[in-house]
## 1
Amino acid sequence: MNKDVFAIRSEGQGVVRLSGRLDASQADKAKAFLASFSEPLVLDLSDLDYISSAGLSVLLVTLKRLESLGHTLRLRHVRERILNVLRYAGFDQILTIE
Amino acid sequence: MEHSFARRIDSLDDIFEFLTQAGDSMGVPTAVWFSVNLVVEELFTNMVKHDRQGSQDISLCINRDGDRVKLSLTDFDVDDFDITRMPEVDTSAPLEERRPGGLGLHLVRRMTDTLSYHYENRQRTVTASLKLHE
C-alpha cells in the first residue's frame, strides 16, 4: 500500500483519473490540479487505493466550486473500500457516484 | 511495535511503510489494514495540525491483541486537547452547509471499536482499537 504513489491526470473530455493514495500529504497537489477545471467533471477512481479526510475535503471543495459555476462533479469506478469511506462521510448523498 | 515520527505531514510515507511492515508481521488482513492506515493518518495529522507548539516527535505504538488491533499515538510537551469530546459533524447536511474539517475524527469514530484519550505530564495519548473482522 505504501508503494502506491498518488497520481492525477486528465484524460480529456472532462475526465480526470486519480490513482494510488490520496492522503494528507497529497491533498494540495490534487486540489491544485482540479482547480484548473471549470467544466463538468468526471473523476475516474478505478485505480485509487486509499482516501482519507484530506482527500474528501478536496472532493468537497471541488464539488462546491463546480456547482457554483453551474457544473457537475461525478465519480465513477469507485472501489468498495473508497465507497465505504464516502458513505461514512455522507458523501454518497451529495456526490453522483456511477 | 513502536516507532517515533517527525511531526510533519510528510511523515505519512514513513508511517505507512511502518504500518505495512507491522501488518505483515501481525498477519492482519489487508481490508482491516486500510482502516488502520486511515485511523493512524487522521490521528497523526490531527496532532500535527492542532499541537503546533509541540516540537518533539510523535510516538506510534501498534499491537495485535487477539481479534483486535490496538494502537496509540502520543504527543509530548503539548497542551490538553481531548479529541473524543469534539462535536460530531452532520454527515446528512446539504452541500451548502458542508465544510471541510471534522471529517477525520468522524471517520475515526466510525472505524474504531474503542477510542480513548489521556493527558498527563503534558503528554497527550490517544488510544484506539479496531476489530480484525469487519
Note: The interface with chain A takes residues 9-10, 12-13, 16-17, 19-20, 30-31, 33-34, 37-38, 41-42, 45, 91-95, 98, 100-101, 103-104, 106-107, 110-111 of chain B (CB under 8 Å).
## 2
Amino acid sequence: MLSARGAAMAFGDRVLWSGLDLDVAPGEFLAVLGANGAGKSTFLKAALGQQRLTAGELLVAGRPPGRGSRAAGYVPQQKSMDAATPLRARDLVALGIDGHRWGLGRRRADHRRAVADALAAVGATDYADAPVGLLSGGEQQRVRIAQALATDPQLLLCDEPLLSLDLGHQRAVSAVIDRRRREHGTAVVFVTHEINPVLDLVDRVLYIANGQHRLGTPAEVMNSATLSELYRTPVDVVTVRGRIVVVGTPDHASGSARHHPDDHQHHDHPALRTTARSGR
Amino acid sequence: MSGLFDFTDYGALLGLVQNSLIAAALLGVVGGLIGVFVQMRDMQFAVHGISELSFAGAAAALLLGVNVALGSVLGSLLAGALIGLLGVRARDRNSLIGVLMPFGLGLGVLFLALYEGRAANKFGLLTGQIVSVDTVQLGWLVSVSVVVLVGLAVVWRPLTFVSADPEVAAARGVPVGVLSVVFTVLLALAVSLAVQVVGALLVLSLLVTPAAAALRVTASPVLAPLLSAGFALTASVGGILLALGGSIPISPFVTTISFAIYLVCRVVAWRRTRRGWGGRRPAGAETARPVPAAVP
C-alpha cells in the first residue's frame, strides 16, 4: 500500500531520514515514532504528496503520491474547532468526499449514503447532525476518521490522532481504526510520540531519530540496545505493567502517559533532562 | 419624537430612493454571504482594515475628480493584496492590519480636507450616502456585486473546506493558497461596495454582524448563508425605509437593526445550547470539549 525505496528527506544539510526501504502491507498497522522534529510528520507529508523526497522513491498504492489522491485518507491531530463553524459532523465527512470540487451543486444521493455509512462505521451516527464546534475531542476524531474513510482509501495516514484525548477516547478511537484495517484491509500509518495507547495494535514500528531510522516489530525496535544505538546515548527501555517506558532520550520520545504537546516542552528543559540522566 | 419621524409623502420618497433600495438589497446579499466566510476565516479585523483603505481610495478619487466607486475598489484591492501577501499567519495579519488601518484613515482624512466640494460627499464616505445612489453608480454597484456573487458560487465548496479544515483540505489536494487569494479579492470587492453604501465606519454591520448572528443559530452549511444574507438584507433595506421617514442618516438604523438581530440570535442560541443542540451540551461529562459560545 505504501512502499519506499531508498527514500530520503533533508532540509538543507539536515537529514531527517535516508535510505528508507519500507513496504506496508494491506491491513498492516505501522507506528511511526520519534522525537519532535525528527521527521515523523514530514514522512506523512511525503506520503500525501505535499513534500518531495530528497532522494529515492515513495509509492502509494503503486503510484507516486499525488496531491488529493483518493488512495490515501488523512486524519490530523484533534484541535478544537470554532463553535461558529457552519458545519455539522455530516457535512465535515461530506467535504472529505467532494470538498475539492468547484461550485455549489447539490450532493449526490450516493455521496449522502457514503457519508451516512462512514459515520455509522465509526459509531458517530448519534451526533451526525451536531455542529462540529460542539463535538468533544473524541467525537471529533471519530468524525475525522469517518471523513478520511468516506472515499474508501487503501491507506490511512494518521498524524497524532490521539493527542489531547483522554484515555477512554484514545481507546475508542484506536479501536475504530483497528476494526477498519481488520475488516477492510486498510493499511494504517500512525504517527505518534506515544506508542502505549496503540501498543497492542502495532505490527511494526518505524523509529526515526538523529537522521537515522529503525524498522521492525515493537520488540525488535523498542529495546535498550536499538534505541541507544539510534540516539547514540544510553537509553533504557523498560516495560512496566504492559506499558513501554523509555528513559534517557534527549526528547524522551515515548515515555509515560503524556497527552499534551505542552508537556513535551518540559522534557526538553535542560534541568529536567539532567535530572532524568543522573537519576539512572 | 415627532421631529424624528414623519411618514407623510412616504410613497413619493420611496420612488426617489429606488436606486438606493436596489443597491442596499444587493449589498445585503453580498455582505451576508461573504460574511459567513469572514467568520469562518476569522477575518473580521481584516474587513475593517480593508474598509479604511477603501475609504482612502474613494477620498482620493473624490479629490482628483474621478469615479469614486473606482477609487474605492482600487483602495480595497490594494489593502487586500497587502494583507494577502504580507500577512500569511494570523498574528502577522492582525498587526499588519493594525498598522495599515490608521494610515489609510489618515490619508483619507487628508484627501477630504484638501477637497473643496460638497461637504455631504465627504461625510458620506465615512458614514454612508446610500440615499444619493445615482444611475451611474448603480451600474458599478451591480457589476461588482455580480462579480462577487459569481466568484463565490464557483469557489464555495472548496472555500468552505479550506476555511473550516485547512489541513485536511490541503491533504485532499484543495489549492489552499489560490483560494486564499481569490477570497481576499472577493472580500475586497465586497468591502468597496459596502463603503460606498453604508460608509467605511459601518461596513462591519453588514459584513460581520449578520453572519455572526446566523452562525449562532444554525450550523447548517445551507441555512447559515441564507440566514446571514436575509439578516443583512433586512438591516440594509430596513435601514433605508426607516430613515426615509426622518431626518437622521440611514446608518444608525442599519447598525441598530443589525445589532438587534444579533441579540435575538444570541438569546435563541443560549436557550438552544442549554437544552442541548443536536444532542450536544456545552458542559457535558466529556473532558476534551471546547466550551462553545464562549463569551469573549
Note: The two ends of chain B are 36 Å apart (CA to CA).
## 3
Amino acid sequence: MSSTSKKSLIFGLSFVLIFSLMIVGFAQDKPEVKNPNLLNVVTSGTANTLDPAYTYDTASGTIIQNVYENLLRYPYGTVDGNEKKTEGYSVSSFEPLLAAKVPSKDNGLIRETAGGGVIYEFPIRQGVTFHNGNKLTPEDVEYSFERTMIQDRSGGPSWMILQPLTGYGSIKSIVKAVAGVDEFADATSEDRVAAFNSFIDPAVETKGNSVVFKLPKSYPPFLNILTHGSAWSAIMDKEWVIEQGGWPGTADTWVEYHNPGGGSAAEDSVLYDVMNGTGPFKLERWDPGTEVVFSRNDNYWREPAKVKRFIIQKIDEWGTRRLKFINGEADICYVPLQYLGQVEGTEGVKVQKHLPTIQMNPAAFFTQDVIVENNDLVGSGTWGDGIPSNFFNDVKVRKAFNYAFEYDAFIEQVLQGLGYKTNGPVPKNMQPYYNDDLELYSHDLDKAEQLLKEAHGGELWEKGFTFTILYNTGNESRKTASNIFEANIEKINPNFEIKVRGVDWSTYLDQMIGTKMPLFIIGWLADFPDPHNFVTPFMASDGTFSGWQGEGMVEMAKEQFDPLIEQGMATVDVEKRKKTYYELQKLAHDLAIDVWLPQAEGTRILRSWVQDVPFNPMFANSWSYAYPIWKGYED
Amino acid sequence: MGWVRESIPDPPFYLIFWEGTRAEIMLAYTTRRVLVLPFVLLGILLIIFGMLQLLSANQRLSTFISSPAELKNTDIEVLKEEYGLNDPIWVRFGRWLDDVVHLRFGWSESAKMTAKRAFLRFFPVSIELALWSALPIILGGIWLGTVAAVNHNNVVDHITRLFAIVGWSLPSFVAGLLLLMVFYGGIVTWFPPGRLGLEASEIVHSAQFVRYTQLNTIDALLNWNWFVFTDAVRHIILPAIVMSYVRWAMLLRIMRSSLLETLRKDYVQTARAKGLKENVVIKKHARRNALIPVVTVAGIYVAFLINGLVITETIFDWHGLGRWAVTAAQQFDTSTLMLFALFNGVLLVLANLVVDLIYAYLDPRVTYD
C-alpha cells in the first residue's frame, strides 16, 4: 500500500471509532441549568414589523407584548416545568396595567351619554418611564391611539380601534363620508383635516391625569381591544416617535403618515425596527427572520423580570430545533403536534397538554351559488361529472356533509388525541357565550345517506356528482380533513366523486375572491376574545368568509344573521348577549352553514428548569410573555 | 480583420509587448463575453415576466394580502387599481423594467423586508458556505480522483470510489442530521448549528467589531478576534463537510478517468522512460493536463454553490440564499423569484467565463480569437 492509501485507511478507521463513541450518551436527569440568566425560545415564524400600529401577525405581536404595554392586562395563570398549573387566567376580566384603575360602571369610569354613546375614562398610572427615560403621560396614550387610527395600513389592525371609536372601519371611509365623495382621491385636504377634527381627535382626549375615550355607541368588547396582547393598542412615547420621524400629531399632517408602504412594505413605517416601550424588556437587537434579543429593563415600574436576557430564535427545521432543545441550549421549543412523540418522555423535558385555545382553525366552508363559469373545481357544472351552482344551497346536502366527517378519528390521528369537538362559530372556551348544551353533529353515514337521497328532490342521488375540495397548504390537518370528506362521501354512493387539491395562498385567494370553491378549508384565530370577533367573519353578510360563500349565503346572512349580530353588540349586558349568541349558534347548527372541525388543544413544551411560564389563551403564542419566567428548580 | 494598419501610428514601445499577446486576446475575449451579459439578462427577464402573466390579477394580489384576516375592510378592486394589477401587460413590464434598472426589486414577503435588503443579508451567508466548501470539494475531489487513478483497479481504488458513491447517494439531510446528532446532540456540543454561538454573536454585533465583508470568518480575522474566528469555524465545519462529501463522487469520477487517459499518453511514457520518479511524473506532467475537464465541471459546481444549498442551510440553520429561494417559491413571492432569476443569469455567465479563462490558462493551446 502506498503511504497515501495507508493514511486514508487510518483516517477512515479513526472516524468510525469516534463516531461510535459519540453515538452513546444523552442528558442526565435533573440536569444542571444552562445559561440561568438567559431565556432562549426556539420557534418558527417570522415577525413582520416592530410597529404596534402596523402588526397583524403573532410573531410580531409576541415581540411587542414584551417591550410595550397597554392600559389593561388579562390575569394569567402559570404553567411550568413541574406540571403545576394555576388557574386564574381570564379573557373577560381585567387588571390595570398602565391605567391606574379598570373602568367599570360601578366606579363611574364607564358612563353612558345622552346621545346613546359611551365614555370610558382611564386614570393613568404615575411614575412609569419608557426605556429612553421619558415619563409616561396621558398625551402619550392619546397620541398612540390617534396614530394607530390615522396609520390604518391596508390589511392592518387599525379597524379594531376605528370601528368602536368612530363607527367606521377605515379612515378612508370617514374621509369619503365627510367629503361626500366616492373615491378617497377626490377628497380635498380641507376634507381630510375636517375628518380628523370631527372623528379622530375627539375620540380620544386627555382630561387632567386621565384619558377619555368617546364611543358613538355601545361596543361591548371595547376593553378587550385595549388589553395587553393586542399589539395595536400598545402605548408609545409621543416625543420619541416624533424624533424617529413619525407623525407630529397634527390634523394637517396625518395623510403623509397614512398607510406607509401601501400596507405591503413594512419597512416604510418609521417604527419598523425600533422600539421604546414601558415593558419589562428592552429590544437589544432584531435580525429579521433570524432572531430577536431582549435585555431586561432594570427601571421597570414593577419588580424587574427574573431573567437578564431573552432570545427568540427562528429555526424552521424541526430536527435542528429539537436538537437544540434536547441539548439544553433552548428552554422552550415550538413543537408541531405530529412530532410531540419525539420530545415527550425525554429526560429534563416537560410537556404541558390540554391547555384551552380560542380559535376556529380549521373549519370547512360551503359555498352556496358557487360560480361555475371558468371553474375547474366544479367539473361540468351539472350533475354527474360536476356539480350545479346550487349544490350546497340545499340544507340537506350541508347536513349530510356534517354527518360524513369522522370527528373522533381526526382527534385521534391528526391531533394526537389532544383535541375537542365543538360547535361554531363561537369557540368552546369563550364562556359564557358558548352553548355547551347544543348538540353536535356526529359521524353517521346512515343519516348522511338518507339526507343525500332526499336532497335536490332526488336528483343528486340519481345522477351523482363530482367536485374538488381545495385546502390551503402549509397545514397537514387541513389536508387530512379534506381526505376524510373524500373517503366518507365516496363510500356512500359510487356515483359520488370528490377530488382533493392543495394550493398555495395566491391560488387560494384567487379562488376565494372568485367564489369558485364549493368546499374550502381554512381557519381563523381570535383578534380579541369576544364572540363578535367570530360571528362576524363566519356569519355576517360582509364577513371575511361568509361574504365569499356565495349569493345564497349572503342572502341568508342578511335576513337571519345580520340582525342578531347587531343585536349582540347593542348591549353590554352579558345575559342578553349570551341569548343572542346562543341563537346564532343554533342557527349555524340547524342551517349547517359550515362543518365545525375538531380544534386542537394547546401544548407547552419546556425544559424542566423553566418556571412560572404565564398562560392565557389570548397570548399571541403559547408562551409569549417572558416577564414572570425564571430558570431553576423549586425545592 | 480588415483594418487598415498603415494609417495607425506606431504604438509606444511597451504596447508592442502587449499587442498580439495572449493577454491581449484574452482581455478582448473577456470583454466580449461580459458585454453579452445585459442581453442574456433581458432574455431571462422577458421569459420570467411572460410566465408570470399566466397568473390572474387576483393571484398577483396575494403579494399584498397574505391571510383572510387582511381581507377585512379591504376593497379588492380598489387595491388592484392601486397596485396597477389591472394595467395592460406592456405598462406593467415597463414599470417593472424601470424598477429593476434602478435596483428596486420590491418587497419580499418571504423575507419580510425589501428583496434588495434580503439579498444583501443572505448573499454573504451563502458565499461563506461556498468559500469554505469550495476548497474541500475541489481539493478533495482531485485528490481522491488521483488516488483512485494511480491505484487503478486495486483495493484502494475500489474503497475510494465506494466512499464517494456512498456520499453521493446519502441524502444531505440525513448526513447533516446524523452529524449534528453525533457532534452536537450527544455528549459533546463541538459543532453546533447556526452561524455563531450566543457569546460570539454578541461580540460581532457590538460597536467594537467592524464589519468588512459580512462573512464571520473573514471579519473575525480582520478584527484579530480569535474567539469569534474559532466559534465561526466550529459552526461551519459540519455544513462544509456535508456540502463536500456529497460532491466528491462527481469530481472523483471525472478526475479519475481523465487522469487515467492522460497516464496512457505518449509523453507520460517518455517521462517515465527518462527515469523520473512516479510522483513527479504524475504531479508535474500528467495532472495538469488531466485537470482540464475537471476544471470545467468544478468551476460551474462551485459557482452554483453560491446559489445556496437549501437542505444544508435548512438543517444547519444558516439563513442563506438557498433557503430564501425555496421559501419564496412556496409562498409565491414574485419579487424574490425575479431577483433570483436575474442573479442566476449573472452567475451563470460569469462562471462560464471564469471557467473558460482557467481552461485557457491550463492549456496553452487554447486561444479565443
Note: Chain A touches chain B through 65 residues (CB under 8 Å).
## 4
Amino acid sequence: MNDSGAERLSTLQMAEFAARGFLRFDAVVPDSINRRFLTDVGHVPDAEVDSLWKHYGNIMRSSAIPLVNPGTPLASAYPEDSAVAELLRLPLVRGATASLLGTEPVVDHHFLHITFPGRLYAAAGQPHVAQHTHQDSTIDPRQAFDVQIMYYPHDITRDMGGTRFVPGTHLRVVSEAAISRYQNIRGQQHMVCKAGTLLFLHHGIWHGGGRNDSERLRYMFKIRLCPTERQTRLWDTGDLDELSQLRPIFWNPAPSNKPSIESVLMNPEPWFEADTGRLEMINRIRLWRYLTGDTSWDADYWMTRVENEYA
Amino acid sequence: MPNIRQNVLILYLESSALDSRCIAWSFYEGASNARHDAGDSDEPPYPTGLAAMRDGWRLIQMSPLQQHGSGDEFRVGYLKYEFLFEKLIDVTGGGASK
C-alpha cells in the first residue's frame, strides 16, 4: 500500500491497543463517504423493508461490496472508486492499519452486518435477541494478531444495540462461542457513536451484536485483516524511549500523572480477577515485547520477578 | 400440588471467596417467560455472592481450584470463579419473578 501521508499511530496509542485490544476513532469518515457507502450497499428507507431475508438477499445480490477471496492484498481488494476504497485511503486509516499490521496486509474476510428492528424478526419467526458474547474464529494462541476494522456508516443510538465489547479480553485464549454463558461483564462497552466512526479491534476481543430495539436498521461493515510481516515497531516510534521508565509501585504516596507506556499497559479493567488480573499484566508485557522486539522489556518488575533465575 | 420451576443466577467473582466482588453475571428464568439478554445490564444484581445468598439464592455449584499446568501458568482464558445459584419457584397460580 502507498504509505505517503499516512498518519502512523503514536506509542501511547499502540500501548492502549496492546492493553485494551481496541482503538476507537469517532466520526473520522466524512459524511460523503458514509452516504455513498449506504447507497452502494443498497440501503433503502427503513419503512420499505418488510422482510429481513429479502433485504439481506437484495443487499447480497445488488450491493457494491465485492467478493474477496481470503488472502487478497487489501490494496487491491476494493475498486478504487468505491466508498470502501476511499475510506481505506484516509490518512488515519492507512496509518492505523500500517502501524498495526504493516503496509501489505491481506483480507481474511469481510461482512456487512445488518441488525433489524424487532418487527422484522417477528415476521420471520426469528428470536429478537442480542448476539451471545463470543471471540471470533477459533482458539488462537498466537502472539501475532489480526485486526478487525468495524465501520459504522450512520449514527448509532443506544437503543439500536450497537456492538458490545469487553476491553482487555483480547489476550484470553478461549474457544469462540464457549463464552456464550457470559451475559454481562463489568466494563463492557456498547457502541453508541456518530456516523463515520471506526473501531480497530484485536481479533481476540470478546464481543457481540446488541439487540436492536429501535425502528431503524443498523449497519456495520467489518473487514478482518491479517499481517504479512512481524508486527514490530511499525508505528511512529520517535517517542518510544522517553515514554518508558521503571517506577515504584505499591509504596508510592504521589504516583506520577505523566503518561507512560507503563501507566497505560498496567491499567486494570473493572472485570479483572484478583489473581489473573496480574497474569493479564504479564501477557500485556509479553505482547509489548513482541511489538517492540525488546525481549527484556518489563513494567513494574512483573516479568523480571519470574525470570530471575541463575544457572 | 406445587408446580416448581427453576431460576438460575450465575455470578463470576473476583476470587474464590464468596464475599468477593462480582465481576460478571448471567440470569436464566425458568419460572417465567422473562428473557435476560447479553448486554442487558451494566451493573451486577448483587455486589458479592454472599449478598445473593442473603437474598434467598441457594448456591448449587462453585468452580474448583485447579493446579496450573507446567508451562501454561500464565495463560488466561475463561472466567475462573463461577458460582451457580438457584431459586425454586412455585408457579402454581401464575408464577413469580426474581
Note: The beta strands of chain A are 22-25, 72-73, 106-115, 147-152, 164-166, 184-185, 189-190, 197-202, 206-208, 218-226.
